[in-house]
Design goal:
Layout: E1 21-24, E2 30-34, H1 36-44, E3 48-51, E4 56-63, E5 70-76, E6 78-81, H2 87-92, H3 99-105, E7 122-126, E8 141-145, H4 146-152, H5 157-160, H6 173-179, H7 186-193, H8 201-204
The chain binds zinc ion (ZN).
């Protein structure tokens, strides 16, 4: 694990000005989002193998007391990091299950009535209820509005005579990166979309 980037490299006022940077491993496999501070750290340590995005960002640093010149580092919306490969994890790793990413996976649509709801009006429905042995896993959960959740209660869809309008699935790493960042740049989205599984609702969109 790498140490955190030294904060002194950059101006604090730049903090809000840049989106998350998508990092890839040395084979070009999507890995994770990092802050621009962390990206600057990778550049400073010569750990960036190549850049793949269409957006460059210039991060200005301190002014040299002798020369009076201001230092800067250029980074990019997508950067590949030298070192360990994560290719084996792309298709196999199961991302953590959170409501935010679950609702995003299901595009905020209730799996029972098909309504489109705001985040606060949605719940996590366990298709096989926990009270009947159902587990809290991507494959057993769907997005559900509060009225439908109350109506279904502790029953299976069959027991409640409610039909599931779409199937659950486990998002892969690339899709999880899409689901977990609401401010993705177009080039980052295009890149990640190429690595999303064919069964993804994001593939069909
Ligand atoms: Zn509903």
């Amino acid at each position: 694990m790498l140490e955190q980037p030294p904060q002194s490299i950059v101006h604090e006022r730049c903090r809000q000005a840049h989106p998350w940077i998508l990092t890839l491993d040395a084979n070009g496999v999507p890995h994770r989002w990092v802050s621009w501070q962390h990206a600057v750290f990778y550049h400073a340590k010569d750990l960036v193998a190549w850049v793949a995005g269409s957006h460059d960002f210039e991060i200005r640093g301190g002014i040299n007391r002798v020369t009076g010149e201001q230092s800067f580092i250029r980074t990019n919306s997508i950067i590949a990091i030298k070192g360990r490969s994560h290719a084996h994890k792309l298709q196999t790793a199961v991302p953590p299950l959170n409501n935010r990413e679950l609702f995003h996976r299901d595009r905020s649509v209730c799996a029972y009535c098909g309504g489109d709801f705001a985040y606060q009006k949605l719940t996590r429905d366990h298709i096989l209820p926990v009270s009947q042995g159902g587990r809290d896993l991507w494959m057993n959960v769907v997005t559900c509005c509060r009225p439908c959740n109350q109506r279904k209660s502790g029953r299976t869809p069959e027991q409640a005579r409610m039909q599931l309008l779409y199937a659950p699935y486990v998002p892969n790493k690339a899709e999880y990166l899409i689901l977990s960042n609401r401010n993705i740049l177009v080039d980052q989205m295009d890149f990640l979309a190429q690595h999303v599984n064919a069964n993804s609702r994001w593939k069909a969109a």
